[in-house]
């Protein structure tokens, strides 16, 4: 199927992790630079980019149903939309997509999307194209400069992963670890702040493995980068995600105590509380080494909120091993967490391991784990009732005069600003955390500006 003409409008739909959100924004900026406009809300686009995620089977399968839906909507409207499949499914299953889905004009991997413009030209001539070349370094230099930003922005500093956890596709879809150069990052951060960012979240699959050289040729780790970025007076908050327990050094721990702009929140996936399972996962940490590491972070920053990722039902996981995960959760007291049923991924070592766990056992374990995690999240939010803190205002709420933002501990806070006047998106206000609900906190405005 040949899309009739060069596309005039685009829509980028991103699935999966924050890095895909970042990539999706950069694709949108690049398409805009080509003179293609974002499709108005509610209207079909001439070019649809599906920026996909391959992490679990459900996420990956979504792409095929989406392709079907988009082509059907196109047929009904008498048009043939150009469909591009980008992201991690494109990287992992490019050939299969081309064979299974004739409506797709191009398949473009996460490290090749800067070459999408020439692929679009080809597609307009009826030629299909696949580009899944690695590695990542080239794309950043080829992308247009940042000109737009929400108050909270993402910035990819590191990409790829060398850890090869036995369940995970990321080392195959994103490739080997690379660090973007220090000067490029300082420059992009500056542009984002000029465009309205007040908070920057540094992104990487293994973000704390970032390393670079500053302008004096000194070798830096991520802690050094954070200190350098914190010097910009208009940048108010810094966060980072996601790190691996093996790459957290003393300097980073110290930075949490010293750099006020580094928010008191740490997302540090543990996956399991059983040392046997952790070893089978190829996670290089034990439950005990993880807990000790958290103690060191908490010593540096006592009000640190913790978050984690968990997998239940990894092959061979016994009831007793699962209970060790519950004990670890009890020991940590997470403020937030993400938990998943193990999903066998093609090409990963765990997919062919013996003793795959039955789906109903996984369901039951996930429910029990989530009950504990929800309990702790609620307790964390309850414990913050009465605190006064800064809130970065990110958008308007549903009700007249209502605003939504984030506390330093990444809690969603809504508050009524109707009587205050003069509040704008991107402001940092002072609010009292008045009442904690299951997913957000009702705040009361104390002052229009940060204290
Ligand atoms: N270190 C990564 C993790 C990416 S994947 C990062 O930087 O974000 C995010 C989470 O998905 C992992 O921490 C893990 O908990 C989960 N996950 C990864 N592969 C999975 C699989 N095959 N089945 C279920 N969950 C998985
Ligand atoms: Fe995947 Fe493990 Fe790398 Fe995270 S650290 S991206 S879970 S292989
Ligand atoms: Fe998914 Fe790729 Fe991110 S597999 S989680 S989009 S790195």
SSE topology sketch:
Blueprint: E1 9-14, H1 18-33, E2 37-38, E3 47-52, H2 57-76, E4 82-86, H3 87-100, E5 104-108, H4 116-124, E6 129-131, H5 137-142, E7 152-156, E8 158-159, H6 170-173, E9 178-179, H7 182-194, E10 199-203, E11 211-213, E12 219-221, H8 222-229, E13 237-241, H9 250-258, E14 265-267, H10 275-280, H11 287-300, E15 305-312, H12 319-332, E16 336-341, H13 359-383, E17 388-396, E18 402-406, E19 412-416, E20 428-436, E21 441-447
Parallel strand pairs: 1-2, 1-3, 3-4, 4-5, 5-6, 7-10, 10-13, 14-15, 15-16, 19-21
Antiparallel strand pairs: 8-9, 11-12, 17-18, 17-20, 18-19, 20-21
Q: How widely separated are the two ends?
A: 59 Å
What ions, cofactors and ligands are bound? S-adenosyl-L-homocysteine, iron/sulfur cluster, FE3-S4 cluster
Overall spatial form: globular
- Main sheet overview: 6 strands, parallel
Physical arrangement of strands within the biggest beta sheet: 2-1-3-4-5-6
* Domain unit count: 3
Mean pLDDT: 95
Q: What proportion of the residues is helical, as a percent range?
A: 25-40%
- How is the CATH topology of the largest domain named? pyruvate-formate lyase- activating enzyme
Low-confidence stretches: none
How many beta strands in the DSSP annotation? 21
Provide the CATH superfamily of the largest domain: tm_1862 like domain
CATH architecture annotation name of the largest domain:
Alpha-Beta Horseshoe
Percentage beta strand: 15-25%
């Amino acid at each position: 199927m040949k899309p009739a003409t060069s596309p005039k409008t685009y829509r980028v739909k991103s699935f999966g992790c924050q890095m895909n959100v970042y990539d999706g924004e950069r694709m949108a900026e690049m398409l805009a630079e080509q003179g293609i406009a974002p499709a108005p809300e509610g209207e079909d686009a001439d070019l649809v980019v599906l920026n996909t995620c391959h992490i679990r089977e459900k996420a990956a399968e979504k792409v095929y149903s989406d392709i079907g839906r988009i082509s059907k909507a196109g047929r009904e409207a008498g048009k043939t939309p150009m469909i591009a499949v980008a992201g991690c499914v494109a990287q992992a299953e490019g050939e299969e997509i081309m064979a299974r889905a004739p409506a797709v004009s191009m398949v473009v991997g996460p490290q090749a999307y800067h070459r999408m413009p020439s692929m679009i030209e080809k597609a307009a001539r009826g030629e299909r194209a696949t580009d899944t070349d690695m590695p990542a370094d080239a794309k950043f230099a080829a992308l247009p400069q940042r000109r737009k930003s929400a108050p909270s922005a993402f910035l990819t500093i590191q990409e790829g992963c060398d850890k090869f956890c036995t369940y995970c596709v990321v080392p195959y879809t994103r490739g080997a670890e690379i660090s973007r150069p220090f000067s490029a990052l300082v420059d992009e951060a500056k542009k984002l702040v000029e465009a309205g960012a007040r908070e920057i979240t540094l992104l990487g699959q293994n973000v704390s493995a970032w390393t670079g050289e500053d302008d004096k040729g000194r070798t830096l780790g991520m802690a050094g980068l954070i200190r350098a970025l914190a010097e910009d007076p208009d940048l108010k908050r810094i966060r980072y995600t996601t790190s691996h327990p093996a790459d957290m050094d003393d300097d980073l721990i110290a930075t949490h105590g010293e750099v006020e702009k580094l928010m008191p929140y740490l997302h540090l996936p543990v996956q399991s509380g059983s040392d046997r399972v952790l070893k089978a996962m190829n996670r290089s940490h034990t439950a005990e080494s993880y807990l000790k590491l958290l103690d060191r972070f908490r010593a540096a920053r006592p009000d640190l909120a913790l978050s984690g990722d968990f997998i239940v039902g990894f092959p061979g996981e016994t009831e007793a091993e699962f209970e060790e995960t519950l004990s670890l959760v009890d020991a940590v007291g997470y403020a937030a967490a993400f938990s998943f049923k193990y999903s066998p991924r093609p090409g990963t070592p765990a997919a062919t391991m013996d003793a795959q766990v039955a789906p109903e056992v996984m369901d039951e374990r996930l429910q029990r784990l989530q009950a504990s995690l929800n309990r702790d999240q609620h307790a964390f939010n309850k414990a913050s009732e009465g605190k006064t803190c800064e809130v970065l205002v990110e958008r308007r709420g549903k009700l007249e005069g209502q605003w939504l933002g984030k506390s330093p501990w990444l809690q969603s806070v809504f508050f009524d600003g109707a009587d205050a006047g003069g509040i704008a998106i991107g402001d940092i206000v002072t609010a009292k955390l008045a009442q904690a609900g299951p997913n957000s906190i009702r705040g009361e405005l104390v002052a229009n500006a940060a204290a």
